[in-house]
Input
Amino acid sequence: MRRKNFRIALDLIMTILLPMLMAYSLIGEKFHEIIGSAMLLLFVTHHILNRKWYGSICKGKQTFIRIFRSLLNLVLLILMILQPVSGILMSRYLYTFIRIKGVSAYAREIHLMIGYWCYILCCIHAGIHLVSFMSRLNTQKKVLISGIWILISVYGIYAFFKRQFPDYMFRKTLFAFFDFSEPRVLFFLDYLSIMALFVLIGYMISNIPKVSKKNSSI
Output
């Protein structure tokens, strides 16, 4: 039970830090590097706690959701390695002792693009694991939470384009722009709604096999 509670606490901390990392200029670049370093440690700890997953990748029946989860996890692993590496190469505060001439500009572009991809994929990853939580709820609570979640996600679609996610993800925009006159709370509300949207997408993807099975039995 203690191990399970520790995992839950770890995942919650990572979830809280994720939108904070996206606000790097708003919270200050030094604080961004500190949070990024903390996220790296949490990510490594997360993988150590779930290390048995690697040994079970090729075992058992390879269903749609298992293949999807495996590919998603492997892509996330690669991106979450590249993200701190590119961040360290362009560091201006914590890792100034590491300098490779002529790479900081390219590292910045990669760091920016990967940051937005990581945000989306981490949310989808969380949504897939939301299934076990939702299955414990009674129908009334499930309907209530789903209704609220869908409403937030609808706004998340608007916020996704308002915050220019596609431009950053596909390198159409190489510099991040922040409105420093905007209240910080509005920035985080937008990013939380985007998080809700892609958590919902992950949850829906995880339920595709169940829906298909139910339809095939009709």
